[in-house]
Amino acid sequence: MLSKEITESQQYIYNALKQCHLQKAFARLRMLSAQLQEWDADTKLNDLETSYRYMIQYLLDGIIDPKRTHVYNHLITATYHLTDVICDKLRVNCDMTLYYTTRKSHRIANKTLSQLYSALDNSVNELSLSELIHDNKSIIPKRKEVEHNAEDFFDKIWTNFPTHTDDYATLRDALQPHHLPESVSAMVVSAITLNIIHSFDETMIDILIDAYLHHDSPEVQIRALSGVLISVLHYHPRLHLYANLGNRLSLLHDNGQFNLDTRNILFQFIRSRDTEKISRKMTEEILPKMMKISPSLYKKIKEDDALNEIESLEQNPEWQELLEQTGVTDNLMELNELQMQGADVFMSTFAHLKGFSFFNSLANWLVPFVTNHSAVYDALGTEEWGKRFADILRSSGFLCNSDKYSFCLSLAHAPIEQRQMMASQFRTENAQMEEDAKAELYKKSRERESISNRYIQDLYRLIKLHPRRSEFLDIFSIPLNELLQIRNIFHITHEEKLLKSLGEYLFKNQYYNDAVQIFDILSHNNYTDSELFQKYAYCHQTLNNYHEALELYLKADLIKPNNVWTLRHIAICYRNLKKIDIALDYFIRANDIDPENLSINLNIGHCYLEQKMYDKALSYYYKVDYLDSKGTKARRPIAWCSFLAGKYEQAASWYQKILSATPTAPDYLNAAHVAWVRGNIREAINLYLQSIEADGNDIKRFTQNFEHDTQELIDAGIKQEDIPIILDQIVYQASEKKNN
User: Fold this and answer.
1) Are residues 135 and 85 in the same domain?
2) Is the N or the C terminus of the chain less surrounded, counting Cβ atoms within 10 Å?
3) CB of 267 within 8 A of CB of 502?
4) Are residues 116 and 234 in the same domain?
5) What is the per-residue pLDDT across 588-608, written as a single tens digit (0 to 9) for each?
6) How many domains does the chain have?
7) Is residue 113 domain-resident?
8) 501 touches 270 (CB < 8 A)
9) Is 39 left (phi over 0), alpha (psi -120 to 50) or beta?
10) Residue 404 lies in a domain
11) What is the pTM of this model?
């Protein structure tokens, strides 16, 4: 049986169980069990189905069973588990994903979890002894042995299924405070999280909750809670079946630290959706601009200065001027602001530095950055500058753990002079970041937030950059509406303070579809917040939901009447709904309050134009032209309105101004209409050809735009029968010009 067929059957059974169709689930599971040909699996399936049939019979006989719900839920959860076990056994011999190839690795295949833990524990103790007696010769080999054993333990935890009672005891012991180094305990927690993502395990989640509550390391605690939340997010449709787990989560509701940590983790999850957008900005906007200015920059700097005084670049006013001219300064300031808010701005920078052999081990994608890791030691050596650089890197809150290792590993291949220069630059930048952050990031109150941000970014790199990433569940693709409806954390996701922060974040970053969901929840308890209804309405407006937007804008107007911004957007909605008379009334109301607002006056002109009241439209367009210091906003409306009003000489004069500036394809098209109506047919054809050329020689698009204006040409006196003839001539000439 192929792995794809197994996955499809497993998903079919999941969907049947989700809809409480146990008979369908049993039928498909029996087909899988027949493929497995194991007596134990068949027996368990028969027992489950027999129990279900007895339950049905009791129901038909009218027997009152107070434990029916409990029994029914147990049948469903047991069927989930049996499905996972059977599918797992079927996959072992045919699935070549990283999960199964790792499980069959000779390093862990024939060893129990307890044996691997013992080996790890022994190596940790031996390393501690070497460090205690300052046996420098053995410290590095012992440290590498610990790392090697920690990776094996990680892989075994991740691929350990089904998990037995002894395994649970081993994991609980491993996560006791001070039993293992903090970095190793953190890896254990991450491995448990990956294990749960692969196959649901209530006891594993329980172990993570214990680690969050009882371990003394904030790193371990935050990772454990992240694992719990990821499990809740992934499996939320079935969590109601597990009463004990639900009770444990409910007991955490009164824990203020739990609520704060959960908010931070959830917010970072949501914030992660900005990562790809920021990466595109880096690769498509900022870096190309930097590449363009590089030749100009280095022509202005002597070679000796560049070599001897790297920091002189920061002081050079000519360089700063070049940056401002290209817009790089604004981009960098925007990225810096995002960085201070916790956004992941380094994804694109380090995406290409995950090819080192260090990342061949899955565990190393999630290992906390420690300065005594052998990879750091091998990369930076024993010189004092290397130790200082590692310490600076460790304390930096602006790089995730994975990127810190990438940074170190990249330095290993650079000449010593370049290493020192990069270290010096990073030290300067990091110090500036710390100063900008006013040391808040490292205050006790922000330490846990920093840990959660770094860890979620580590997970993001694993899911998005790992060579076998297609084999991992993309936990970052969970829709926001699902996240908000998870009842186990409902009290947190629906907390007003969080919702307001989340709504502002989504609104500011233009995630209007998601922001609508947040503002909808907030609007039920904030009846007098006009700004909330304005933003709620604006989101709907950008999504072209004009009816919904209008209703909300009208509420905002009731709460806070005569707000120009609100009135203007009410008018825009009415205009898009083709209710021009009402739109005009609102624009005029807004104009009475702010008579010199160019946008309002333009829109009043547009409304009169759509009503074919050309003289009134022109009066407002002229007002805009008078008020506009640049004198460009009203040129096109005046020219076109003059044409429609039959004032062809006036229209021609305005189009002459437009064409002498920065004309577009529609400008040439409209100017050609004016020339034709004035009897200058050859001039008109020449302008039509320029319109085609300005639009990338797209004759088809030109033809559509031309035909769209047919009625205006007829109203202006052009004979209807002449229009297709002239259009054919234009196409002839354009085609010939294009072919030549």
Assistant:
1) no
2) C
3) yes
4) yes
5) 999 999 999 999 999 999 999
6) 3
7) yes
8) no
9) alpha
10) no
11) 0.79
